[in-house]
From TrEMBL:
GO cellular component term of the entry, any: membrane
Keywords: Membrane, Transducer, Transmembrane, Transmembrane helix
Protein name: Methyl accepting chemotaxis protein
Source species of the chain: Pseudomyxococcus hansupus
Keyword Repressor appears in the UniProt entry: no
GO BP terms in the entry: signal transduction
Length: 661
């Protein structure tokens, strides 16, 4: 029975009696109470957060009496016969209440409540307060049957959506369009849970009111993010950046509120009012985006927009009474979800039809190519036989290559050892060549200094030869002078002899003169004495001059011999200088050759090192080649086996007639 008449209200809170029960709960009269239409917010609320409602219960002789109330905002207590018979949430007159449920609730009443009034003590710090949607009374089994009957459509729709969510989640886990299917799973799962919980079937069947409230909130918070991600992935194909930002913001808000539901249900129920405020414009934005995509020719968007539009209308109608903006007019939400489910099924069916058409087309093409496949099978059988022969030849060739490469690898190892010995010898040769080059440089320098010394010696010998020649000429000139002096001495001797003869004659004449000739005799004696002394002196001078002349001739002869020796020495020095110059040239050539040898040895050493590196690389490449040849041999063996299998399979297929028309 609908409770539509006799409702009364009273703002504020009742004082408590001695037994702790509010005094207003024990009053039966109408004093202080005012009438109010059923399921309406009483006038004159102001700043009041406490409301008392008095609802008359008819006397219809029900056995197990039950009161069915729609959404009660927010926490409340029910009193019957002056006793508290039901509590939902926590009332805190000094602060904020804690809401326990947002769903329709069935409250068992004592049989004595028939024909009396039931009092509701309600607290709400939000905009809405009181009872909305419905108020009924009757036998418990009748009430439960009506709840199940009225909520069955929503429960079935929710179950169907939950099944769709599980299927989408399973397909997403298989890696096929993960993000779109995951979004569909989130939206369908949240919608299914919300519908199933709001149908009140779960709450009546399992009596888990608090858990159902939490699950209801979680389902509601999953709807908008899941729907937004599905639109972004399936309709928009991740093109609009601002829409991604919007969906991301909604997702973060929903995640925060979901955590809040698990931590503090009272605070979550208060925040839920804000959720509904931004949910309506967000949902309308989704509708506009889908409609624009449908207008631009997106077929899926056109199918989706029909169901989404109807869902939006139903949700807006359902939210208006909760916000206090419109009276309660019944349940419409599940019809919207059914419409959206139908649109999703339509999209899936359309894509299934496309796949089916594609399969039919491929089947026709497959039928058209069956003959080609038969020919191919026959050719494959023949080719497989040839492939077996080729694989056998390739295998034999691979084995020969393996043997040859192994030998080459061994030869390279021996060559590498030989090159290492050559490198050691080259290093020793290079060191000795550098020492020899240094010695040759020193010899070349000494040869140049010796050549310079010989040149200076030649110059000095030539000067000495000239001086000795000049000295011999002067000695010969002195010899000539000496001979002239000897001639003069002979003349002086002749004069002395004549003076002696004259002195003899004068003595004779003095003797003849006697006394008068005595003085003349003395003079003649003195003259004769002087003449004798002159003869003796000239004789002595002659002897000296002859000795001097003989010495000068010896000196001249010696000078001539010295000049000859100087000439011989000069010629010998010239020959020595020529030989030294030739030796210097030979040393210079040898030095150049030694330098070239040293450079060649250095290059040989570097080349030997490069050869060693190259041999090592070749050895590595040979090892890789050996591995590749072995792999080729294994592949040849596999190809041979595969060819035999192909030949057998083709023969079986042809014999079985599976490829026949």
């Amino acid at each position: 029975m609908e409770l539509r008449e006799g409702w009364r209200y009273r703002w504020g809170d009742s004082p408590l009696g001695p037994d702790g029960v509010p005094l207003w709960a024990q009053e039966n009269g109408a004093e202080g109470w005012q009438s109010v239409p059923a399921l309406q917010v009483p006038p004159g609320r102001g700043d009041h957060t406490m409301l008392w409602l008095s609802i008359p219960i008819p006397n219809a002789d029900w056995g197990d009496l039950a009161l069915l109330l729609g959404s009660v905002s927010n926490a409340f207590e029910i009193y019957a016969g002056g006793k508290r018979v039901h509590v939902s949430g926590i009332i805190n007159p000094e602060g904020h209440e804690t809401r326990q449920s947002i769903l329709t609730q069935m409250i068992p009443l004592p049989a004595s409540a028939q024909g009396t009034r039931v009092l509701l003590r309600i607290q709400s710090t939000t905009k809405t307060i009181g009872v909305s949607q419905l108020a009924r009374v009757g036998a418990q089994h009748q009430v439960m049957a009506r709840i199940v009957r009225e909520g069955l459509a929503a429960f079935v729709t929710g179950t169907l959506l939950f099944i769709i969510a599980l299927v989408a989640l399973g397909m997403a886990l298989q890696g096929r369009q993960r993000r779109m299917l995951a979004a569909l799973a989130v939206f369908a799962g949240g919608s299914g849970v919300l519908l199933a919980c709001m149908s009140n079937v779960l709450a009546l069947a399992w009596d888990v009111e608090g858990s159902v409230a939490q699950v209801t909130f979680l389902g509601a918070y999953c709807m908008l993010p899941g729907l937004g991600w599905f639109i972004r992935e399936s309709i928009l194909e991740n093109r609009l950046r601002w829409f991604r930002v919007l969906v991301g913001s909604v997702s973060l808000s929903a995640a925060f509120q979901a955590v809040l539901v698990l931590v503090d249900l009272r605070l979550a129920s208060q925040v839920f009012q804000l959720t509904m405020l931004y949910s309506i414009p967000c949902l309308l934005t989704y509708v506009v985006v889908v409609l624009v995509a449908a207008y631009r020719g997106n077929v899926d968007a056109r199918i989706f927009s029909a169901g989404l539009g109807l869902l939006t209308v139903c949700l807006v109608i359902a939210m208006l009474p909760m916000l206090g903006w419109a009276p309660v007019q019944g349940a419409f939400a599940h019809w919207g979800f059914m419409a959206l489910t139908a649109s999703l099924v339509g999209i899936v069916a359309r894509r299934f039809i496309q796949v089916a058409r594609s399969l039919v087309s491929h089947a026709r093409q497959l039928d058209a190519r069956r003959k080609d496949v038969q020919d191919l099978a026959k050719g494959m059988g023949r080719g497989a036989g040839e492939l077996v022969s080729v694989a056998q030849g390739l295998r034999a060739s691979s084995e020969e290559q393996t043997t040859g490469v192994s030998r080459q690898t061994l030869a390279l190892k021996e060559l590498d050892q030989t090159v290492q010995e050559i490198r050691q010898g080259s290093a020793v040769t290079d060191e000795k060549a550098r020492v020899l080059a240094q010695s040759v440089v020193e010899a070349e320098e000494a040869g140049r200094e010796g050549g310079a010394a010989i040149a200076r010696t030649l110059t000095n010998l030539e000067g000495i030869g000239v001086e000795v020649t000049e000295m011999a000429q002067r000695i010969l000139a002195l010899d000539a002078r000496t001979r002239e002096i000897a001639g003069i001495v002979d003349t002086v001797k002749g004069l002395a002899d004549q003076s002696n003869m004259l002195a003899v004659n004068a003595a004779i004449e003095a003797a003849r003169s006697g006394e008068h000739g005595r003085g003349f005799a003395v003079v003649s004696r003195e003259v004769r004495s002087l003449a004798d002394q002159s003869v003796v002196a000239t004789q002595r001078i002659r002897e000296v001059l002859e000795g001097v002349s003989a010495d000068m001739r010896d000196a001249a002869k010696t000078s001539e011999q010295g000049v000859h020796r100087v000439k011989v020495s000069l010629e010998a020095v010239r020959i020595s200088g020529t030989q030294l110059q030739r030796l210097t040239g030979i040393i210079s050539d040898t030095s150049n050759s030694v330098r070239q040898i040293s450079a060649a040895v250095s290059q040989q050493n570097a080349g030997t090192a490069q050869i060693a590196v190259a041999i090592q690389d070749m050895s590595s490449q040979m090892q890789k080649t050996l591995n590749a040849v072995q792999a080729t041999r294994n592949v040849a063996r596999s190809v041979q086996t595969l060819a035999e299998d192909m030949s057998g399979s083709a023969q079986k297929a042809l014999e079985s007639g599976a490829l026949s028309a």
